[in-house]
Amino acid sequence: MSSETENDSTPGDPTPAPVKQKKKRVHPVDEVPPAGKLVTLGLQHVIAFYAGAVLVPLIIAGAIGLDDEALTMLITADLFTCGIASLLQAVGIWKIGVRLPLLQGITFAALAPVIKIANENGGGRVGLLTVYGAVICAGVFTFFIAPYFAKLIRFFPPVVTGSVITIIGIALLPVGIGDATTDPATHTSDPGNSRWLIYAIGTIFLIVLMQRFFRGFLATIAVLLGLVIGTFIAWTLGDTSFSPVADADWVGFTPPFAFGMPRFDIIAIVSMIVVLMIIAVESTGSVFATGEIVGKRIKKDDIAATVRADGLATVIGGIFNSFPYTAFSENVGLVRLTGVKSRWVVAAAGGIMIMLGLLPKTAKVVEAIPAPVLGGAAMTLFATVAVVGIHTLGKVDFTDHRNLIIVSTSLAMGLYVEFSQSSAPSQAIVDGEVVDIPATSGVDQAVPGLLEIPFGAGITMGALTAILLNILFFHTGSRGVAVAGSGSIRLAQVNEMTQEQFRETFGSLVQDVTWVLDRAYQQRPFDSAHDLRASFQEALLTGSDDQQLELIRSFPDLDAEDEVGDMVASDHTALSNLEEDEHDNIVEMAKAYRQQFGFPLVICARETERYERVLRNGWTRMDNAATSEKSFALIEIAKIANYRFDDLVADANPIITARFNRFQDVMG
Question: Whole-prediction pTM value?
Answer without folding.
Answer: 0.59
